[in-house]
Amino acid sequence: MIKNFILFGMLIVSIPVSVHLLSGTQESAPCTEYAAQFVETESGVTTKCILNREDHAFHCEESRKSYSDTYYYRHWSDFIRERNTFGSTYYTKQVKRMGDETHTFHNRYDSRFRLVRNSSSMLEISWRSWDSRGRPLLGKYDYRHNCLNRDIKVIYNDTEKIIRMISSGGKEISPKGCTKLPVLLLFKFDDRGNLLIKSSAFDNGLITVQQYTIVEYATVCY
């Protein structure tokens, strides 16, 4: 898994809402420090990330070369802005490569630059409520081959740097299409805004946990 916070970016096959490995710390800071290299504890797979200012893109790639994520911004400085508001997202497009498959996700924002829609050929998420910082709170998503019109709720704990995504309901398109999706996703970040733990809980009681160790940081400033 790569980042995905940047908040609503890696495709989670469960709740298909992306979360960057980077989620931000202080607001209005001129610099940010991100995980340039990290290791998934159980698999030992290493991922390297870099901000490309010329392309206004943030790119992460696994050492096995089978998985990569690239997030594109209007301007690379939006990456710093995104990082420095915990739980926010400002990228406009995500290109995800998984083996031989490539998926492109687009974000649409309103005039206040609040995220209103994530969409791709696989899924669509519509947001209808935001907090005072413009972070999504309530929405619905269609995971088009499995589950439609499913509710999603996001809870931010700014003190403990934890994001919870809760989903429920929906119309099943395939057998148990909605019940295959997790009812809770939890993301725990360090004080620098880098992802440490991702946990998924399902209706049947199954809980999966992924942990990450940051081995190298990079600093970028305006």
What's a concise summary of this model?
The protein is mainly β and 222 residues long. 3% of the residues lie in helices and 51% in strands. It has a single domain, classed as Porin, CATH 2.40.160.
Written description of the protein model:
With 222 residues, the protein is mainly β. It contains one helix and 15 strands, in the order ββββαβββββββββββ. A 14-stranded antiparallel barrel has the order 1-2-3-4-5-6-7-8-9-10-11-13-14-15. The longest helix is centred in the middle third of the chain and has 7 residues. The chain is globular.
Name some characteristics of this structure:
1 helix; 14-stranded antiparallel β-barrel; single chain
- The CATH architecture assignment turns out to be Beta Barrel
Kindly report the average pLDDT value: 85
Q: How many E strands?
A: 15
Could you state the order of secondary-structure elements as H and E? Answer: EEEEHEEEEEEEEEEE
Q: If you compute it from the alpha carbons, what radius of gyration comes out, rounded to the nearest whole angstrom?
A: 16 Å
- Major beta sheet, strand line-up: 1-2-3-4-5-6-7-8-9-10-11-13-14-15
CATH class: Mainly Beta
Runs in which pLDDT lies below 50 for 5 or more consecutive residues are: 1-19
Q: And the CATH topology?
A: Porin
Helical residue percent? under 10%
Domain count, please report it: 1
Oligomer: single chain
Rough shape?
globular
Largest sheet: 14 strands, antiparallel, barrel
Percentage of residues in DSSP E strands = over 45%
